[in-house]
Write a structure and sequence with these properties.
By secondary structure, the protein is an alpha+beta fold. The chain is 18% helix and 31% strand. The protein has one domain: Alpha-Beta Complex (Inorganic Pyrophosphatase). The longest helix has 19 residues.
């Protein structure tokens, strides 16, 4: 895992800019960095320029993340951040800042304040408890309802009505979104990087 194509360094690497999005593209496996563990009301976010984890905000309500949440490296979504990923069916909290390999099962199309802010949906690659989960539908109807409710209400006390879940799609669409965001990263963000 985490075969980084980089010489040993005295300095901490920013994994957002040295890890490829796909660990194994043929099998739909992506790299991700954990930002928020399920059950938290705190929203942590990786600082894109440096890679450190920052407390972005304390939740505006008691609504906690119903899944673990993270970012896919070397991607750039339309909201001006790395592409988000929901990590579902996690049995034990994952440490924020840790690197995980995930198997894509779908994508949720989402609009946040008028901007595209899609969410890849995935399970841990090596957790046998998730082997049976091949699609979002395998998570059940309640997962869809809970996820939609969460995203449409997480900011309701501060910015009501700004989040809108559009549709859920399968793994193929998720891979397509990741590739689009990787191309966007190469064109829009990578040229800004210092050597």
């Amino acid at each position: 895992m985490a075969n980084i194509n980089h010489k040993p360094s005295r300095y901490m690497l920013n994994l957002l800019h040295v890890l490829p999005p796909f660990a194994d593209e043929a099998n739909g496996i992506v790299n991700a960095i954990v930002e928020v563990s399920a059950g938290s009301i705190n929203k942590y976010e990786l600082i894109t320029e440096s890679g450190q984890l920052k407390l972005d905000r304390v939740g505006y309500s008691s609504l906690a993340y119903p899944f673990t949440y993270g970012a896919i490296p070397m991607t750039w979504d339309f909201d001006g951040d790395p592409l988000d990923v929901e990590i579902v069916n996690v049995t034990e909290p994952l440490v924020p800042g840790s690197l995980v390999e995930l198997r894509i099962i779908g994508v949720m199309k989402f609009i946040d304040g008028g901007e595209v802010d899609d969410k890849i949906i995935a399970v841990l690659k090596d957790d046998r408890r998730s082997d049976h989960i091949k699609s979002v539908e395998d998570l059940g109807e309640y997962f869809i309802k809970e996820t939609q409710y969460f995203w449409e209400n997480i900011k309701a006390l501060k910015k009501p009505g700004t989040g809108k879940v559009e549709t859920f799609h399968g793994a193929d669409e998720g891979i397509k979104v990741i590739k689009e965001c990787a191309e966007k990263y190469d064109k829009e963000y990578a040229p800004k990087l210092l050597d």
